[in-house]
Amino acid sequence: MIVWINGTFSAGKTSTARELTGILPDSTLFDPEFIGDALRVLLPAKRLAEVSDYQDLPSWRRLVVDTAAAMLAELGGVLVVPMTLLRQEYRDEIFGGLAARRIPVRHVLLAPEETILRERIAAREEPGEPAQVDLRVRQWAYDHIPVYQQALGWLTGDAHVIDNGTLTPRETAERVAEAVRSDDAKVCDIVQTPEPTRETVAAGVLLFDDQDRVLLVDPTYKAGWEFPGGVVEAGEAPAGAGVREVAEELGLVLEEPPGLLVVDWEPPQPPGYGGLRLLFDGGRLSAEATARLRLPGPELRAWRFVTEAEAADMLPRHRYERLRRALHARERDRPAYLEAGTPVG
């Protein structure tokens, strides 16, 4: 199990985590900041200059998941992780990756009042650091207070909140331990999608409104928008898998089998394996059918009808190319075969 202690800078995460490892039996401290420090040494300066925060590096997010899984496999017990996560898509990616490895996450948010946060930042000192470095660290912390406040909407709905403004690190750790033991800090409600171990076949279904805008969904378990659909299970027909996924994800039962629009071979992109990606035409939804759409909380956060131009800004490039070719095939009433998003033949 992982106890993820979240909160903005100077919320008291690291000091609480240290105390917590002395309270919870068989617990180990894992600070992902060390992975950021390592990447600053390992990655070329040109790549580092492209981001303002090491959390923006896909390699950091991937290594956090892989390292946590490796430590739990090595040590067992509880991993205590003090790390600020203020971008929901990064939380999705990291917690989704842990869920895919069947690792439950208890998410705790330390939330002192802003006045206390500012007092802590002002009093913060980094032993051995020059004054200008200390000033820069403090300014970084001040700058992230508005970002933290904007994230509170999803954070408070996702995590067990503890106001530790008047608590010592030991008292805060005792509150966290109590919440974990009593299940108040519930296992993070995120779908557990197993990591593929080989190439997969996935079926997506395109659904349209009366303006021919296409429906996209926002999964909780990974970053970015997606088509309704999922991996085809063993012995399952791809079109049937698409129908099943639409029913599970949106509460919508398709009255007719969807027609094939695109078959796309997705090449492996480590650590992903790739495989065949099929897109089907689920047809146009009536206003009544749209009003009945329902989302499963653990799996999908939102849905939207979007234009092709809007989809270009919401989908990864390879997925957008697949959509673009599918829309073209729909206009021509002729399915297309693609390899890596490019038509063949």
- What top-tier CATH class of the largest domain fits best? Alpha Beta
**Spans of at least 5 consecutive residues with low confidence:** none
Principal-axes shape call: elongated
What would you give as the CATH superfamily of the largest domain? P-loop containing nucleotide triphosphate hydrolases
Q: Tell me the CATH topology of the largest domain.
A: Rossmann fold
Q: Which whole number gives the mean pLDDT?
A: 89
What proportion strand? 15-25%
Radius of gyration: 23 Å
The biggest beta sheet reads: 6 strands, mixed
Distance between the termini: 50 Å
Number of domains: 2
Descriptive notes:
It is a single chain. This protein is of the alpha/beta class and 345 residues long. The chain folds into two domains: 2-181, P-loop containing nucleotide triphosphate hydrolases (Rossmann fold, 3-Layer(aba) Sandwich); 200-343, Alpha-Beta Complex (Nucleoside Triphosphate Pyrophosphohydrolase). 42% of the residues lie in helices and 21% in strands. The protein contains twelve helices and 13 strands. The strands form three sheets. The protein has a six-stranded mixed sheet with strand order 8-6-10-9-12-13, sandwiched between helices. A hairpin with an 8-residue loop joins strand 9 and strand 10. The longest helix is centred in the middle third of the chain and has 28 residues, at 131-158. It is elongated and about 65 Å long.
Helices and strands in order:
Elements: E1 2-6, H1 13-21, E2 27-29, H2 33-42, H3 45-48, H4 58-75, E3 78-82, H5 88-100, E4 105-110, H6 114-123, H7 131-158, E5 160-162, H8 169-181, E6 200-208, E7 214-219, E8 229-231, H9 238-250, E9 259-266, E10 275-284, H10 287-291, E11 300-306, H11 308-314, H12 317-332, E12 336-339, E13 342-343
Helix pairs in contact: 1-8, 4-5, 6-7, 11-12
